[in-house]
User: Fold these one by one.
Assistant:
Number 1:
Amino acid sequence: MNRRNVFLGEHIVATVKIYTRVSLAGINEIKYPSFNGFLKSDIETPPLTSLRNENVNGTIYGSGVVQQFLLFPQVSGEIQIEPVQISVLVQQRQAGPIHSLVTFSPVIRLYPKQLSVRQ
């Protein structure tokens, strides 16, 4: 989220972005939160076809924006946005007499986000 403190009806931009240090073959499934307490509008986001290198506190990650939303809070107070769950396809080299790639699909569950909405 681009801000954590907003006024009632003032929009915020929520960005679902992935950071990884392993090779991804793709995204299997995404479960977005219901965004209770908000009016939601999807921002047109180009498909994620490749990751860009991004330095986060001295560590290089492959990163990319999955989806963006405009959220308009409809109630005041502390609002919790439930986490996004992403199932990705990960490729790893398997050691042995014949080197091969193994693909598996872990589920990534992000932490909920808290937003303070004032009238």
Note: The chain is about 0% helix and 65% strand.
Number 2:
Amino acid sequence: METKTTFIPVLSISSGVTDIEFYKKAFGAIELWRLNNPDGTIHVGTFSIDGAIFRLHEEGAKSVSPEKADTTTVTIALTQDDVHAVVEQAVAAGATVLSPVTDYEYGYRQADLKDPFGHRWTIEKLLSQEALDNFVKGAS
């Protein structure tokens, strides 16, 4: 079987988590598979959002959850057609708005959220390639 190169972010979650429905409710994610620990808590779960794959994995010796670290070192950018609707849906599912939906001079509409596990998400849509190109040229 040939392997296709794929980038799959793995988001650490605290040990003892049993409910990962947030991603289904907030972003329409489809759960592809999960492995539970003997006590029923989540060990690893794999999701797809419109074909983009990501995993949740309980923290361990090699990783720590944002809740435990009290910070995060990565932001997941999720490109969507209707930023306002996705933000509203995510908030209804339990996300916290860090910055509201804003149209920026560099051609993007964006909002920043924190999910219930402490992960930071930027929900975005490119509104103008020309504005982005001009912004990049001006920054060079």
Note: The chain has a mean pLDDT of 94.
